[in-house]
């Protein structure tokens, strides 16, 4: 049995605390995960994990093995990178994270096109709304939408990120179309739980407006709010990369088009400029070029 794979499995179990989660992440059966850990324990002659029906924890030997395994895996990645420098091919595995909505709208297709150029690479995409410690999660590149990214990370702007207010034609036909920001107070608004849930800020030239909206439905994920808007659930604030196709086909209509919402940026974030692998550099350059034209930008 491949001992390096066994180490990878063990590290994932140790970090997640779950055999099932490791099986899902590594695309193998739970029985195979158990077998890899058992083989590693047999090879080392020590019990690495304490298992109960509710939790998995490291033994003292497991703590030592985790540290050594992480070092071995890092060394393996370094060897792959050094080899790629000599023959020009990019190898190994990259771990990328972004929001679920951006993964759905843009990143999944972008990664597929990137891997077509570098078929010996592998990419693990973590689509999540939660904040991750990039070092602990061994994330190579995080794609985040923000006005102020984490100053502890190195950031490279990929593209601006505009947002718009949208609603379905059926909703507007039943409830009327807002003409002024204040009119939103009389409408059913769909709010993003982590951003502007109660107050929406709009601007038209030098004119500013803050509207306290009555949010009857909030969610922590943009695609859920978009589906609610498409179903006639109300007015939603949506990034243009997600809303643009629906505005073009008429399934959503822009609300208050003369008013602008706060602008943010799409960043590529990584822990350090030092030891940035050729594969990460190649992916960064690919994304910068791909999003330079803002394919989701609305036509004025």
Number of helices: 9
Assigned CATH architecture of the largest domain: 3-Layer(aba) Sandwich
Class of secondary structure makeup: alpha/beta
Which bin fits the share of residues in helices? 40-55%
Mean residue pLDDT: 87
End-to-end gap: 59 Å
CATH topology annotation of the largest domain = D-Maltodextrin-Binding Protein, domain 2
What characteristic shape results from the CA principal axes?
elongated
CATH superfamily of the largest domain: Periplasmic binding protein-like II
Percent range for β-strand residues: 25-35%
What is the H/E order? Answer: HHHEEHEHEEEEHEEEEHEHEEH
- The beta-strand count equals 14
Low-confidence stretches: none
Integer count of domains:
3
Going across the biggest sheet, name each strand in turn.
4-3-5-14-6
- What is the oligomer described by this structure? single chain
Under CATH at level 1, the class of the largest domain stands as: Alpha Beta
What does this structure look like?
The protein has 300 residues and is an alpha/beta fold. It folds into 3 domains: 1-88, Arc Repressor Mutant, subunit A; 89-161 and 264-300, Periplasmic binding protein-like II (D-Maltodextrin-Binding Protein, domain 2), CATH 3.40.190.10; 163-262, D-Maltodextrin-Binding Protein, domain 2 (3-Layer(aba) Sandwich). Helices cover 41% and strands 25% of the residues. The protein contains 9 helices and 14 strands. The protein has helices at residues 3-16, 19-25, 30-44, 60-87, 100-117, 169-175, 222-230, 240-249, 278-291, and strands spanning 49-51, 56-58, 92-98, 121-127, 141-146, 154-161, 163-167, 189-192, 199-204, 207-212, 215-219, 235-239, 253-255, 264-270. The strands form 4 sheets. A 5-stranded mixed sheet has the order 4-3-5-14-6. Strand 1 and strand 2 form a beta hairpin. The radius of gyration is 23 Å and the shape is elongated. It starts with a helix and ends in a 9-residue tail after the last helix.
């Amino acid at each position: 049995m491949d001992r390096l794979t066994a180490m990878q499995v063990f590290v994932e179990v140790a970090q997640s605390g779950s055999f099932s989660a490791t099986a899902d992440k590594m695309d193998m059966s739970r029985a195979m995960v158990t077998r890899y850990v058992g083989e590693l324990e047999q090879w080392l002659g020590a019990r690495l994990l304490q298992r109960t029906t509710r939790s998995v924890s490291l033994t003292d030997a497991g703590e030592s093995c985790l540290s050594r395994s992480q070092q071995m895996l890092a060394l393996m990645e370094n060897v792959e990178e050094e080899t790629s420098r000599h023959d020009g091919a990019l190898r190994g595995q990259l771990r990328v994270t972004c929001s679920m909505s951006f993964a759905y709208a843009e990143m999944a297709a972008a990664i597929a096109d990137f891997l077509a150029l570098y078929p010996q690479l592998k990419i693990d995409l973590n689509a999540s709304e939660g904040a991750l410690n990039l070092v602990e999660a061994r994330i190579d590149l995080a794609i985040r939408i923000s006005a102020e990214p984490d100053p502890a990370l190195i950031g490279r702007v990929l593209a601006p990120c505009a947002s718009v207010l949208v609603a379905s034609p059926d909703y507007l036909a039943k409830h009327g179309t807002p003409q002024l920001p204040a009119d939103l107070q009389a409408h059913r608004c769909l709010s993003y739980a982590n951003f502007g849930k109660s107050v929406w800020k709009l601007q038209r030239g030098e004119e500013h407006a803050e509207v306290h909206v009555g949010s009857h439905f909030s969610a922590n994920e943009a695609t859920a709010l978009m589906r609610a808007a498409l179903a006639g659930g109300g007015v939603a604030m949506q990034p243009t990369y997600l809303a643009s196709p629906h505005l073009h086909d008429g399934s959503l209509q822009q609300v208050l088009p003369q008013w602008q919402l706060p602008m943010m940026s799409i960043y590529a974030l990584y822990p350090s400029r030092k030891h940035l692998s050729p594969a990460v550099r190649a992916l960064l350059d690919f994304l910068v070029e791909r999003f330079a034209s803002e394919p989701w930008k609305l036509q004025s």
